[in-house]
From TrEMBL:
Entry protein name: Ribose-5-phosphate isomerase A
Entry superkingdom: Bacteria
Role description: Catalyzes the reversible conversion of ribose-5-phosphate to ribulose 5-phosphate.
Pathway(s) served: Carbohydrate degradation; pentose phosphate pathway; D-ribose 5-phosphate from D-ribulose 5-phosphate (non-oxidative stage): step 1/1
Length: 232
């Protein structure tokens, strides 16, 4: 297990540990992606080592699959288990209506698929992820078929976004599903996430957006002195 060194990391660990306690014997679960999801996987791995038996975990990325395997968490998929008891994942931004921006790590498509397969989606985060309005801290990622990236980028720019095709280490970034990501910054923030999501989805070549609306049921915010859970 990693040793947290700052309050934000301690918060992620507290949130991950609290969420691991929601996982019960015999469940089929979904595992998110990112640094906070890793803290969940570590805490769940500890419980599995101590005898907790889960039927399986559906990972939301190749990275999560590999990390969960290190902790001997049994991996499954949505063909074997199309309905999950719970999905637990981090987020980049969380607004007061529990709407999210996700995808800073590029896992948005699989995350949304796995989240949608779950009866309950619980978000784990440190306090920095709470915002009054989406879109001010993180760009909105839009996953796009590579063939369509330039026309989609132009269409997104016409919606008022500052657009950038995501790169990693100076190279185009490809998702686990071999698509590209366009990061969209809206200088005024996102005033109507539902309408924006529908508009972006109507552009041919768009696979998914990082807007998660009406999906999260509960938020666990970890802080050095404990966790805040809402709604209770
Ligand atoms: O694609 C990445 C995911 O949406 C992550 O869940 C999100 O970026 C939060 O990651 P972290 O817990 O590292 O802040």
């Amino acid at each position: 297990m990693t040793s947290p060194i700052n309050p934000q990391d301690i918060g992620k660990q507290k949130a991950g540990a609290a969420a691991a306690e929601l996982i019960k014997e015999g469940m089929v679960i979904g595992l998110g992606t990112g640094s906070t999801a890793k803290r969940l996987i570590e805490a769940l791995g500890e419980r599995v080592k101590n005898g907790l038996h889960i039927v399986g975990a559906v990972p939301s990325s190749d990275e999560t699959a590999a990390y969960a395997a290190q902790y001997n968490i049994p991996i499954t998929n949505l063909d074997e288990h199309p309905e999950l008891d719970i999905y637990i994942d981090g987020a980049d931004e969380i607004d007061p209506q529990l709407r999210l921006i996700k995808g800073a790590g590029g896992a948005l498509l699989r995350e949304k698929i796995v989240a949608t397969a779950a009866k309950r989606f619980v978000v784990i985060a440190d306090p920095s992820k709470k915002v009054e309005q989406l879109g001010h801290k993180y760009p909105l990622p839009v996953e796009v078929v590579p063939l369509a990236v330039t026309p989609v980028k132009n269409r997104l720019a016409r919606l008022g976004a500052q657009v950038a095709i995501r790169e990693r280490n100076g190279q185009k970034f490809y998702t686990d599903s071999h698509n590209l990501v366009i990061d969209c910054t809206f200088p005024e923030g996102i005033t109507d996430p539902t309408a924006l999501d529908a508009t972006i989805h109507s552009i041919p070549g768009v696979i998914e957006t990082g807007l998660f609306i009406n999906l999260a049921k509960q938020i666990i915010i970890g802080k050095p002195d404990g966790v805040e859970i809402y709604p209770q």
